[in-house]
Amino acid sequence: MKAQRPADLNGADPHERLLALAAVIERQQRELEILSARQAERAIVCLAEGVLVEQLHCTPAEAATHLRELAARTGVKAVELAADVIGEPVGAGRTQLTGGEPGPPPARPPEAPDEPAGEQRELGDALLAQVLQLTEAAAAALWQLQPDGALEFVAGSGLSALETSRWRRIPPQMDSFAQRVAQQGQPLWLTGPLPVAEQPLSPWAGGARAVLPVRGPAALLGVLEVVWAGDDHAVPPSVRRRLATLAEVTAHVLASSFVAGARTPSGRPENTWLGAVLDSGLLVQPLRGEPGEQPDFEITHVAAGFTDPAGRTHRQLVGRSLVRAYPMLTVYGILDRATEVLRTGVPCRLERIPSSATGEAAGAAEVTVRIVPFLDGLLIDWRPGTDADRLASLLSDIQRLGGLGGWEHSLVTGETTWTDQTFVLFGIARAEGAVGWAELAEHVHPEDTPIVEHFQSTLLQRRPVTATFRLIRPEGTLRQVRAHGEPVVADNGTLVAVRGIYQDLSAQYHSQVALAATQDRLADTEQRAQQQYRIVRELQHAIMPIAAGPVHVAGLDIAVRYRPAESEHAVGGDWYDVVALPGDQALLVIGDVAGHGIDAAQGMVALRSALRGLASTGAGPGQLLAWLNATTFTGNRTNGTVLCGLYDPAARQLRWARAGHLPPVLVRDGSAAVLAEPHGMMLGADPDADFEETTTALREGDTLVLYTDGLIERRGVLLDESLDRLARVAADGGTDVEDFSDRLLGHATADTDDDTCLIVIRVPGGPRR
User: What CA–CA distance (Å, rounded) separates 346 from 705?
Assistant: First the structure.
């Protein structure tokens, strides 16, 4: 047979991959069921052979041969014949080997109502007798685990009537070896005398005993206890292995009481009353597992109205685990929620679960899963979603997302009806009921009461209306609510009801309030900025008036230009000063205070005033800058750059120093060059800074250019490149200082939106161009 290649699911969407995974799991489960059915049939045959050995007093091999020959003569399958021998229907609780639907069990003669329990007791007693014979034990007992956790006696061998009566039922609260094994799920192998406080099975307290869990395919079914006589009787490994195998065989005895129509060992019907209580769903019990394992549950009852998506009968589902029956439940976290419900006792409802989670192959795309605590287990049920369910869910989501709550007031009955979101909006629990039409005004702000009264009266006049008011919630908070309403008129023209919606506008209202406050702050900030700009401009014009023409000081022709920044907020601290000093000398200063606005203007005024006062001392430029630097560390801290020069007309020399400022440009004989920079850091950086002086000799016709960085700075251009360009433009500046200044400003390429200050100084004389 050619093997089939698995489908390539790399390009499939997650849902298709999950369906493919579910198909693989289902196929594997069918294979496991086939193997389990074969094992069950083999166990029935083995039990029948054991019965024949006892009845015919023959060997096991002779019993097997006799069973095969009898099956061949009668034309009945060996397993069916074996089932008749032990009284167990071969078709009960299993799937046919073909993997299809289970067929009906073979016909059996009518039996008395208590017959199954008696057969089970007889079968169990016979099996335990074989256990004693094979293990050389003195006594054995078999209990079945009940839904309430108790252990109920099923069969025994080697026990007196008194012992059997004493151990008929072991409640879960009783500390015994059997209950310990039932609760812990682990076998006990005991040797030597038992403590006095222990209550052992059988009179042999000093011998060895084995207490083993009896497991079915999906759950613990009961407990088997075997006792040896004598003292300190050690159980050899071979006997332990034989007992483990016999415990598996006894599982079939206990499992026979779980099939549909069977009875408990006491003869009482099992869960027959559930059919009158549960109309649909699965009743499940938790399964004990190892720590960290996926939680799982055993299906103990299937309601009559429940339909399995895979078409399995109720008998096929009972005794299975949920993971085995519906493996896709683990993908969508339903088993985790079931564990939470079992722990907390709070029911849950899971909406819009993909139908693939429950095995639905077609039909509704989504199901609603309900998990409810029931006795000591859970009731799990799911129903396909209908169009009405989806529309109701969609409407609920729309109301929640839009903050909309519906309402209707009947003028016929006087009742007021709300949707769920209306209760949320009003902050009222649904159990308290809706606020009546007449009491609505009591839940709004007193100032808005007339608005609500007008809203209601307009509706009663059969006119639609919209109103906005403030709702007071029970905790005292306010919600901004917009109400829309319309009248409901019957065919005969009678007004029978009014209805509408409430919309929560609180978020929008708060946003509008915040926006209005922000706009007010922005307007106030803009107004203050305008005032600051006007103050700075007035301050600049007051201390640095722009002359209508060139200024003549110490025999020099001087032109000054100031160009403000394009943006009002960028008005900076560029400044200059030209002062005639005693002895026909001239003080030439240009500077730039860091920052913009009022602070920069105040710093500019402070530096200019301080330098004027210091210049009267007759000190040189370097000393003047040192003193000026010291003043920046008193009061308001000021940072900035300054170039300070003293011109002596008699010697035609300019002594100058700089505090981080750009060097001057000297134009002579048609060429321009940037003067070498003496050392000096910016003001306000170091209180002990020194400022180097240098002397530049000037000749007739020389032009000296002092400027701030706003004239040359460009983003992404090196400072040296900007200085070279300034020198090239200055070389063709001409001899008229006014034209020279305008030419430099006109060719300025700065793009930093900064103030610009420019001083052009010319020594008269020399050739004119």
Answer: 88
DSSP code at position 7 = P
Beginning with the edge strand found earlier in the chain, give each strand of the sheet holding 495-504 in spatial order: 416-418, 404-410, 495-504, 478-489, 465-472
- The distance from CA 15 to its chain's CA centroid, rounded to whole angstroms, is 22
Alpha carbon distances (Å) from 132 to 140, 234, 498: 7, 15, 84
Q: Which of 48, 40, 34 is nearest to 78 (CA)?
A: 48
Q: What is the CATH number of the domain that holds 84?
A: 3.30.450
Nearby residues of 612 by Cβ (< 8 Å), 6 or more positions away: 577, 579, 587
Q: What distance lies between CA 679 and its chain's CA centroid?
A: 62
Decide if 490 contacts 496 (C-beta within 8 A): yes
618-634: pLDDT as tens digits: 899 999 999 999 998 88
Contacts of range 645-648, beta carbons closer than 8 Å, 24 or more positions apart: 645/587, 645/588, 645/589, 645/621, 646/581, 646/585, 646/586, 646/587, 646/588, 646/620, 646/621, 647/554, 647/556, 647/585, 647/586, 647/588, 647/698, 648/585
Q: What is the DSSP string of 169-190?
A: EE-TTS--HHHHHHHH---EEE
Q: Which residues touch 210 (CB under 8 Å, ≥6 apart)?
A: 187, 188, 189, 190, 225, 226, 235, 240, 243
Shared domain check, 450 and 378: no
pLDDT digits (tens, 9 = 90+) for 455-511: 999 999 999 999 999 999 999 889 999 999 999 998 888 999 999 999 988 888 788
pLDDT category, 46, cuts 50, 70, 90? confident
Q: Which residue has the tokens 């034209």?
A: 739
What is the rounded CA–CA span in Å between residue 185 and residue 287? 11
First and final C-alpha spacing in the chain: 109
Are residues 411 and 363 part of one domain?
A: no
Alpha-carbon distance values, 49 to 201, 367, 430, 474, 561 (Å): 30, 50, 68, 78, 123
In this structure, the answer to whether residues 499 and 588 fall within a common structural domain is no
- The tokens for 283 are 């009743």
C-alpha 403: how far from chain center: 23
Residues in the chain: 769
Based on the fold, state whether residues 581 and 479 are members of the same structural domain.
no
Model confidence pTM above 0.90:
no
Structural domains counted in the chain: 4
SS3 196: coil
371: phi then psi, degrees, rounded to nearest 5 = -125, 120
